[in-house]
């Protein structure tokens, strides 16, 4: 691509401000990159998570302040499908199992692996999917309040020209917003109009944080 006196080479994938972008606009590689960085961060503090001196509550705080922000960097703009949500939960559950450790059978004393439902009960903090949904809704409010004169607002509501290719339509970022609204009883709501009402928007952000995601 050429513009003025400069030329830019076409690329299938590149990293911009820490985010992996592809020419197919796929979030798959970005999730893979985030989980890889989160895994490296996890290994850097695993001695703390294995420590018998630190309380489980303190270990949860270490996870949420050191590891989780690395994994969810830029999640406000993600267009997630169930497959990616599952990958995020698998990573999170692996860390939580290290924090809470295995259960023991009261009769035999045998070590029993904690199931996902039990981890949900033990971890009172919102999981990674809840956090992603609420941050996405919060970010909508920030951009809408910028006003129509800002470029970010234009990107948010813009409709690209051209026809979609044959086949099943790709999952769009706007679809995630509408799904989030449906999950908290907001079926049929106009999300831009809703984001302009700050009180209602923050109520939805809090509601999304309290969803139960299996």
Task: Tell me about this structure.
This protein is mainly α. The chain folds into two domains: 7-124, no CATH class; 133-158 and 169-209, no CATH class. It has helices at residues 28-44, 46-50, 56-71, 82-100, 116-122, 128-146, 151-157, 173-183, 191-196, 198-209; strands spanning 2-3, 6-7, 13-16, 19-22, 103-104, 111-112. The strands form three sheets. Strands 1-2 form a two-stranded antiparallel sheet. β3 and β4 form a beta hairpin. It is globular, with a radius of gyration of 20 Å. The mean pLDDT is 79.
Share of helix, binned: 55-70%
Shape, please? globular
- Which class best fits the helix and strand makeup? mainly alpha
Give the spatial strand order of the biggest sheet: 1-2
- Element order: H for helix, E for strand: EEEEHHHHEEHHHHHH
Whole-number total of structural domains: 2
Unreliable segments of 5+ consecutive residues:
none
| Rg, Cα atoms, Å | 20 Å
Largest sheet: 2 strands, antiparallel
Per DSSP, the total helix count is: 10
* Beta-strand fraction estimate: 5-15%
Helices and strands in order, then pairings?
Elements (H helix, E strand, L loop, with lengths): L1 E2 L2 E2 L5 E4 L2 E4 L5 H17 L1 H5 L5 H16 L10 H19 L2 E2 L6 E2 L3 H7 L5 H19 L4 H7 L15 H11 L7 H6 L1 H12 L5
Antiparallel strand pairs: 1-2, 3-4, 5-6
Helix pairs in contact: 1-3, 1-4, 3-4, 6-10
For this entry, give a set of tags.
6 strands; two-stranded antiparallel sheet; 10 helices; two-stranded antiparallel ribbon; 214 residues; mainly alpha; single chain; 2 domains
